[in-house]
Amino acid sequence: MKTYNISKKILAALLVAGMIFTSCDDRFEELNNNPNQVVEVSPDQILPYIQNGMSAHRFESWRGNILYAMHYSCLMSSPWLGGVEFQAANDAWTQGMWDRAYQRLGGNLQAMEDFINDLPEGPDKDAQLAIADVMRVLIYHRLTDFFGDVPYSEAGLGMEGIFQPKYDAQEEIYKDMLSRLESASARLRMGENTYGTQDIFYKGDEEGWIRLANSLRLRLGMRISDIDPQLSAQHVGAVINEPLITTNDWNCLMPHENDGSQWSSASNGTSAPISAFAAHYMAKALVDNMQGDPRLEFYGAALESGEVVGRPSGTIPSDVSLPDFTADNYSLLNSSEGAVFDLGNDWIHISAAEVNFLLAEAALRGIGRNQSDADAQMYYEEGINQGLSYWGLSPTTEMETNTAFDPAQGMNQIITQKWIALFPDGFEAFAELRRTDYPTFASDQVYGDIPKRHKYPVIEQTLNGKNYSEAISRQGPDVETTSVWWDVN
């Protein structure tokens, strides 16, 4: 497992970068004369703030990932949503996630790009802009997959007087993101990553960014395989033989530190509320699909019986009687030291396991390459192995039996194992569940219809009403049952 230590100086710089445009203080003059106070920022100060902010803060992680995406993807269950996990959109939680994504992440990204654009022309400038493009895709593809049409091309342009950005159609967002990733990979080959150690993801190694750009292009290319097979094959075929994240050494991860505080900017934001509140439980569907999987004990805490027990997901019908939501009846998500929800665990944006499963699906379906059951099996098995080896584990005999590849059941097997490996990234698991309709769930595992998207914040109807109305007239009603563009299954 690749890990990095975050220096306290870098964390301090992250906090300053986050506050630089928003803080006020009556003691301005004193602060202004402080020789240690950062009064100007540069791209290499903003980049680590954005990298850290995508997984360290509770707004995106708790309100977005835990309370919504992980429930929607049937990876966890909790009483926070009152037993109606698929219909419990709390607008305050949605607003917090939306604002954070646009103000702190997208807004700072735009500022970083503006700074870079003022630099002298040259290959190193192109490489810096290429990295900014990859970061843009990481931020906005999560947003568009979750909501559908979202502000994109005009987002972050408040300094240019655009305070009511249009909602771009998801189709156009995807085409632009794929184009940016294609260009980014090429530009990174020509220039040097001058961010150096300020680049928390890859420590200034441009090869890591090339692999990340190609792997994201593979992910997005497969995401549109049902809605636009031609464009999908074009992009998938272009990257399957290029450098990709196929081993854990190249995982795109954000390291975090357990300094004992759930509020710390060093802590893993998804782990923080799990460790603070004993009210987050394993989902039955996940537990049932992990029989014999040695990762199960890292995911969920065993009961006194030694078993990991999950609770059904969804909106539980009134005529269905279930044991109470307590740690005596269901397994809590595991926040112990070294487990998935340890405050100091890395957050993985895209892993070798996921990339191998994407390659397995491409081989099985013949997307961007010739169809091959043998190659599909090879990548499928490597995806499982990479997912296990990240935790220092090997498959058990029971797991090998349960996961033996059968081409006739290939899609279900590939996506189910990817869904398990994605844990606890609810955003990506939710997207793949909608795209493929896999895994298939038993009637006692999931109750009710899984949402197709998440609703926009209500305040958008007031602050950006015209563009909001145009978006829903194009996409469909602003409800959880409206499909996003690429979801045609």
Chart the SSEs and their pairings.
Blueprint: H1 8-19, H2 28-32, H3 43-56, H4 58-72, E1 76-77, H5 91-117, H6 123-147, E2 150-151, E3 167-168, H7 170-190, H8 206-223, H9 229-239, E4 252-254, H10 271-276, E5 281-282, H11 284-288, H12 296-299, E6 313-314, E7 347-350, H13 352-365, H14 373-389, H15 397-402, H16 410-422, H17 426-436, E8 446-447, H18 460-463, H19 465-475
Parallel strand pairs: 6-8
Antiparallel strand pairs: 1-5, 2-3, 4-7
Helix pairs in contact: 1-3, 3-5, 4-5, 4-17, 5-6, 6-7, 6-8, 7-8, 8-9, 8-13, 13-14, 13-16, 14-16, 16-17
Description:
InterPro entries: SusD-like_2, TPR-like_helical_dom_sf. The protein has a single domain, classed as Alpha Horseshoe (Serine Threonine Protein Phosphatase 5, Tetratricopeptide repeat). The chain has helices at residues 8-19, 28-32, 43-56, 58-72, 91-117, 123-147, 170-190, 206-223, 229-239, 271-276, 284-288, 296-299, 352-365, 373-389, 397-402, 410-422, 426-436, 460-463, 465-475; strands at residues 76-77, 150-151, 167-168, 252-254, 281-282, 313-314, 347-350, 446-447. The chain is mainly alpha-helical and 489 residues long. It is 49% helix and 4% strand. Residues 1-33 have low confidence and may be disordered. The strands form 4 sheets. The chain has a two-stranded antiparallel sheet with strand order 1-5.
**Strand order of the main beta sheet, please?**
1-5
- Give the % helix: 40-55%
Mean pLDDT: 88
Q: What is the helix/strand order?
A: HHHHEHHEEHHHEHEHHEEHHHHHEHH
Decide which structural class fits the backbone: mainly alpha
End-to-end Cα distance, whole Å, is 36 Å
| Corresponding CATH architecture | Alpha Horseshoe
Which regions have little confidence, pLDDT < 50, spanning 5+ residues? 1-33
Total number of helical segments? 19
Rg for CA atoms = 22 Å
The shape, in one word, is globular
Largest sheet: 2 strands, antiparallel
Report the portion of residues in β strands.
Answer: under 5%
How many beta-strand segments? 8
Look at the structure and give the CATH class: Mainly Alpha
| Count of domain modules | 1
CATH topology name: Serine Threonine Protein Phosphatase 5, Tetratricopeptide repeat
